[in-house]
Amino acid sequence: MKVSGNDLRIGMLIEHNGKLWTVCKLQHVKPGKGGAYMQTEMKEIRTGTKLNERFRSDEVLERVRLDEEECQLLFRDGDLFTFMNMSTFDQLQIHKYVIGDAACFLQDNMIVNISMYESEIIGVVLPDTVIMEVVEADAVVKGQTATASYKPAVLENGVRVLVPPHIESGTRIVVNTSDASYVERAK
Predict the structure, then answer these.
(1) Are 67-125 and 129-185 equal in CATH topology?
(2) What gap in Å lies between CA 130 and CA 73, rounded to an integer?
(3) What is the distance between the alpha carbons of residues 88 and 140, in angstroms, rounded to a whole number?
(4) CATH says 129-185 is which class?
(5) How is the chain split into domains, by residue range?
(6) Does domain 2-63 have CATH number 2.30.30.30?
(7) Which residue has the higher pLDDT, 133 or 179?
(8) Is 39's pLDDT higher than 80?
(9) In terms of Cα–Cα distance, which of 45, 47, 46, 8 is closest to 25?
(10) Prediction pTM value
(11) What is the pLDDT of residues 158-187, one digit of tens each?
(12) CATH homologous superfamily for 67-125?
């Protein structure tokens, strides 16, 4: 699907110079002299390298559509994760580096979306939040509850997060998988 330089949006996936890029930042620039353009910051899907590029409104770019498959995590073997496609029951093995930092939040039988481009696995999208148990939390400092402060805590998967003072060891909390931040106490 073809798009012009003015039609670019944040999060859009495009093909540029033979590589797949996702648009991270956009700014419409209209200089005093010359034509207007879109100043973009893009991130390459496979390697993570960033690129700043200018696109004029008359430039035509190729927008890429990804195929998404709903899959279930079966098991982990070292740095390899084995998933089962929920519609075809095929098994896929994905290396940890493809999943990225969010791999530490994968739990047995978790349902994820796997993004593919021309049968090549590009990424794994986890649910927005997961429920984890706090295994270690610092003690509350007297007077700390008077202000909106947070204390460090360690989750069952070893990830360190900042939690409110009332959270103690053994408490189950909801954690955002994209930035490993505390959301709320689990019900």
Answers:
(1) yes
(2) 14
(3) 51
(4) mainly beta
(5) 2-63, 67-125, 129-185
(6) yes
(7) 133
(8) yes
(9) 8
(10) 0.70
(11) 899 999 888 889 999 999 988 888 999 888
(12) Nucleic acid-binding proteins (2.40.50.140)
Q: Which residue has the tokens 């580096």?
A: 97
Q: Are strands 13-16 and 60-63 parallel, antiparallel or unpaired?
A: antiparallel
- Tens-place pLDDT, residues 1-19: 888 888 888 878 888 988 8
Q: What share of the chain is helix, strand, coil (3-state, %, to 5)?
A: 10, 55, 40
Residues in the chain, overall count: 187
- For 13-141, strand residue ranges (E) read 13-16, 19-29, 37-44, 50-56, 60-63, 67-77, 80-85, 91-95, 111-117, 120-125, 129-137
Q: Which two tokens stand for residue 8?
A: 């670019």
Cβ neighbours for 131, distance < 8 A, ≥ 6 positions apart: 172, 173, 174, 175, 186
Q: Which residues contact 76 (CB under 8 A, 6 or more apart)?
A: 82, 106
Distance between CA 114 and CA 92 in Å, rounded?
10
Q: Which two tokens stand for residue 74?
A: 């079966």
Nearest by Cα to 82 from 68, 96, 69? 96
